[in-house]
Amino acid sequence: MLMLSKEPLSFLVVGWHKIFLCKMQPDGEEVWNEIETQSFELAEQCIKTNYYGVRGMVEALTPLLQLSDSARIINVTSKLGLLKNIPNGRVKGLLNDVESLTGDRIDEILKEFLKDFKEGLLKTKGWPTQLSAYTVAKAAMNAYTRILAKRYPNFHANCVSPGYCKTDLSANTGYFTAAEGAEGAVRLALLPDGGPSGFCFLQKEMLTYF
């Protein structure tokens, strides 16, 4: 039985006509600021959709997955959600502490992020300043995937980034087709018993630190 989660980038207003400038100057903060308009309300919605939406769906379907002898959970993530994109070392350490990680701890981190966002303290407190909520939500989802792998050893729970694909979401500015982006998820769906669980994949590349 397979469960695949894919949540939309529904948390910001994007100036798509600027995205080509961003591709030419990917580290230009001024360009990013022109591309995106973040607000607390949209950030809160992003966390609800991209983290709590996934978590709620997993919890609702887990009883059905437990009836299967080949349960697969594939959470679609993004390179933005890698821990290297979160400057805050303490938060990074908490999310990477697989042995102590719990859903409650992730909740606390997300509440802290939203509080700092609302108070305008993202940079001061070491949070990402571009695509902030999406980055943090995906990092939280990656961490939750590791919790699932530990909690349900008979499942195969992994997350995968399809890469920057040519879809409506990216205004067709991506490097990969939708079919190419789907290859990683399909591969994980077809994992044989005994395959990896609790990992993050960049398309087909397995990461050990994420």
Automatic annotation (TrEMBL):
GO molecular function, one term: oxidoreductase activity
UniProt keyword NADP present: yes
One cellular component (GO) term of this entry: membrane
The keyword NADP belongs to this UniProt entry's keyword annotation: yes
Stated family: Belongs to the short-chain dehydrogenases/reductases (SDR) family.
Name of this chain's protein: (+)-neomenthol dehydrogenase-like
Key words of the record: NADP, Oxidoreductase
InterPro entries, A to Z: NAD(P)-bd_dom_sf (IPR036291), Sc_DH/Rdtase_CS (IPR020904), SDR_fam (IPR002347)
